[in-house]
């Protein structure tokens, strides 16, 4: 007998004495006893996989294994209950599911439409399973329902349509909760199932965001496998999975072939855990198939590690995994903005705030997962399947690592999605700050007798380049210093600047905005030398930057003259930030330099005894050391790209390409050797700004796409 066939296991005949005995009457659905039974939630795991992947063999294995669990298995119109363990004869009850109104119903018979729960389960399906739980609990010796429920789908079922039905809202008081989706894969036939749709599958052209239509195109994967651009049932089953069981590994003789197969799976789903097995035998049920809690949390570190292991999203052109980083901490207003963005993405299949030159793209999101780091209260978890998603509190108590969103779907492009989310968040924040300014104007009218200084109507964010406050004690109603807030806005309007520190040196790159064809581009200086071993890139008000740079140059020269040694990079940055603090009325008799904060941020790069160093100096007078940092108007999207691409082993040449690639993504104009500027600081050559010929050579290395 071939145990790998997708057939239900042998069932006990309904005429046997097990079902001939008089069962206890069904409890009244309105009784208190039945209501109490639903309080204890039972986890439900969906097991799916293509034809011949070994799902039924796995179910048989679970039913016969000595695990001491009380498990109900629903498959192909049958419900099996294992109430004991250690004896295959203890599969004591078989409950037929009938769609006939004439069927005489007993407490062990449930009536569902079409007789197949795998393809016809709707809201009534959840209610039917809850009824089964209540009946079994009322008739069991301990009065408790099952420990687990396992739902096996048919080989051609799309679990993405099934998951939302069991993802029941807490307010409905369901006795079920969705534990996760497990997808079995026939390792030896994976490529065939991904590339050859069944007769009733519709070939779907995958037009990636940001690329031309791939319809009709084919490409070769490593090892001669052909990649087709249609979406199959196997693609959708893998995309929805929380755990993927790579089964029948014994049929793949070479380890390198098995590794290639696993990489193909990982390229489709970068979220799921992958287990290798043969004959559908799992070493343990808990955490492998059961107790997954896939919809309760988000392990960013674990997911990042799994993505790093493979990182070959190009292996499958149809479905892939995209990660978007969420830098910083979110306010409640930011969370609402993100939720609106997700609604547009998942419900309307629309990317908000797309660039004007962007075309309408064909894409589809199958799975969404993420963590949002909040300024106050608990962090948030994002869970979604297709258009259904929720944002819940993160009760894991894990650290505040950087937030991120992970999407699995067809035709997804990270650059396009980041280019949509970043301006959406930034635009909402800018509107709120404008609103705060108006609030300040209204408050000054009410509290003028207290001489509390608030901005006038002319002192809005849009006029910060020409009009700023004259006092260093002007606070917003929320307690923020308006002058510093305006300075930060000036930087957000400035050119994008990027710095990357490598073991060979530090690289600086800046966007040069050429506002007129008559402007000589060489006169636009965004990167300047402070000393022979220190340079900086700027974003914001260029006149303010000139004052800070001249101060830093004097400090460097004085230190060399007095101590006969070069000024350290950190000490130079400290001197710049000390100057930034001297605005307003001054302190302790010290003359103030400015009546307002400097409206500029600097990336200070250098090489000293500590090696290559990169610092970010803020208008507030604080500074931090970074491996890679972006400032300016495109900083959010650029920083996300750096977060994803940077690694400690980067060479200076690789850093050049990464800087240009990142600037290309965030610049509104087409990148060329005239509108960008690069400089490097190395141990041997010190600070050097790239000449025109050098810039052209580096830009020519940049891939066309």
TrEMBL record:
It catalyses: GTP + H2O = GDP + phosphate + H(+). Residues 1-16 have a biased composition (Acidic residues). It holds the Pfam family CobW_C. Its EC number is 3.4.25.1. The keyword Chaperone applies. Keywords: Chaperone, Cytoplasm, GTP-binding, Hydrolase, Nucleotide-binding, Nucleus, Proteasome, Zinc. Its main location: cytoplasm. Belongs to the peptidase T1A family. Belongs to the SIMIBI class G3E GTPase family. ZNG1 subfamily. InterPro entries: CobW-likC_sf (IPR036627), CobW-like_C (IPR011629), CobW/HypB/UreG_nucleotide-bd (IPR003495), Ntn_hydrolases_N (IPR029055), P-loop_NTPase (IPR027417), Proteasome_alpha-type (IPR023332), Proteasome_alpha_type_5 (IPR033812), Proteasome_asu_N (IPR000426). It is an enzyme of class 3 (hydrolase). Residues 1-33, 195-233, 420-439 are annotated as: Disordered. This is Proteasome component pup2. GO terms for biological process: proteasome-mediated ubiquitin-dependent protein catabolic process. Transmembrane segments: none annotated. Residues 204-214 have a biased composition (Polar residues). The keyword tRNA-binding does not apply. One of its GO terms (cellular component) is cytoplasm. The 26S proteasome consists of a 20S proteasome core and two 19S regulatory subunits. The 20S proteasome core is composed of 28 subunits that are arranged in four stacked rings, resulting in a barrel-shaped structure. The two end rings are each formed by seven alpha subunits, and the two central rings are each formed by seven beta subunits. The catalytic chamber with the active sites is on the inside of the barrel. GO terms for molecular function: GTP binding; hydrolase activity. It is found in: Cytoplasm; Nucleus. Residues 468-490 form the Proteasome alpha-type subunits domain.
């Amino acid at each position: 007998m071939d145990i790998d066939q997708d057939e239900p296991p042998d069932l006990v005949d309904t005429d046997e004495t097990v079902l001939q005995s008089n069962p206890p009457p069904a409890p009244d659905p309105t009784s208190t006893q039945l209501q109490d039974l639903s309080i204890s939630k039972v986890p439900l795991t969906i097991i799916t996989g293509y034809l011949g992947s070994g799902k039924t063999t796995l179910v048989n294995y679970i039913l016969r294994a000595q695990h001491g669990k009380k498990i109900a298995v629903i498959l192909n119109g049958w419900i099996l209950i294992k109430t004991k363990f250690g004896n295959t004869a203890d599969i004591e009850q078989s409950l037929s599911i009938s769609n006939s109104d004439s069927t005489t119903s007993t407490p062990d018979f449930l009536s569902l439409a079409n007789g197949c729960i795998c393809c016809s389960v709707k809201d009534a399906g959840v209610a039917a399973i809850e009824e089964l739980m209540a009946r079994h609990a009322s008739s069991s010796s301990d009065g408790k329902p099952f420990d687990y429920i396992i739902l096996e789908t048919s080989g051609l079922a799309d679990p993405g349509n099934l998951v939302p039905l069991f993802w029941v809202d807490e307010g409905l008081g369901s006795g079920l909760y969705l534990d996760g989706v497990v997808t079995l894969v026939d390792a030896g036939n994976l490529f065939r199932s991904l590339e050859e749709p069944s007769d009733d599958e519709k070939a779907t052209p995958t037009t990636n965001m940001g690329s031309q239509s791939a319809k009709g195109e084919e490409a070769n994967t490593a090892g001669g496998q052909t990649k087709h651009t249609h979406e199959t049932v196997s693609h959708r089953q893998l995309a929805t999975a929380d755990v993927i069981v790579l089964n029948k590994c014994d049929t793949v003789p070479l380890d390198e072939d098995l590794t290639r197969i696993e990489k193909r799976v990982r390229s489709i789903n970068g979220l799921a855990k992958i287990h290798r097995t043969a004959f559908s035998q799992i070493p343990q049920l808990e955490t492998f198939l059961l107790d997954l809690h896939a919809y309760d949390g988000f392990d960013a570190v674990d997911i990042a590690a799994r993505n790093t292991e493979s990182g070959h999203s190009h292996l499958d052109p149809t479905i892939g995994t995209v990660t978007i980083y969420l830098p910083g901490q979110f306010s409640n207003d930011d969370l609402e903005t993100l939720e609106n963005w997700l609604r547009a993405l998942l419900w309307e299949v629309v990317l908000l705030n797309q660039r004007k030159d962007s075309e309408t793209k064909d894409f589809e999101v199958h799975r969404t997962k993420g963590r949002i780091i909040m300024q106050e209260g608990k962090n948030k978890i994002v869970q979604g399947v297709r258009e259904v998603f929720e944002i819940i509190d993160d009760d894991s108590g894990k650290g505040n690592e950087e937030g991120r969103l992970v999407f699995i779907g067809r035709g997804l492009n990270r650059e396009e999605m980041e280019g949509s989310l970043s301006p959406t968040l930034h635009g909402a924040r800018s509107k709120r700050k404008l609103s705060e300014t108006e609030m300040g104007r209204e408050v000054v009218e009410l509290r003028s007798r207290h001489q509390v200084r608030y901005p006038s109507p002319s002192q809005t964010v849009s006029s910060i380049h020409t009009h700023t406050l004259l006092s260093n004690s002007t606070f917003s109603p929320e307690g923020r210093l308006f002058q510093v807030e305006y300075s930060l806005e000036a930087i957000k309007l400035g050119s994008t600047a990027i710095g990357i520190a490598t073991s060979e040196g530090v690289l600086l790159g800046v966007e040069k905005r050429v506002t007129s064809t008559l402007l000589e581009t060489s006169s636009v200086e965004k990167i300047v030398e402070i000393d022979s071993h220190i340079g900086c890139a700027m974003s914001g008000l260029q006149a303010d930057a000139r004052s800070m740079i001249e101060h830093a140059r004097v400090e460097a020269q004085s230190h060399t003259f007095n101590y006969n040694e070069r000024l350290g990079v950190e000490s130079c940055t400290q001197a710049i930030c000390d100057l930034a603090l001297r605005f307003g009325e001054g302190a302790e008799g010290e003359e103030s330099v400015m009546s307002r904060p400097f409206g500029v941020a600097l990336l200070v790069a250098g090489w000293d005894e500590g090696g290559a160093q990169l610092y970010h100096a803020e208008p507030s007078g604080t500074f931090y050391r970074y491996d890679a940092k972006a400032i300016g108007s495109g900083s959010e999207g650029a920083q996300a790209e750096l977060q994803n691409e940077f690694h400690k082993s980067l060479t200076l040449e690789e850093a050049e390409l990464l800087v240009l690639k990142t600037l290309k993504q965030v610049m509104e104009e087409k990148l060329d050797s005239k509108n960008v500027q690069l400089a490097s600081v190395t141990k041997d050559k010190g600070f050097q700004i790239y000449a025109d010929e050098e810039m052209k050579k580096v830009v020519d290395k940049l891939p066309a796409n």
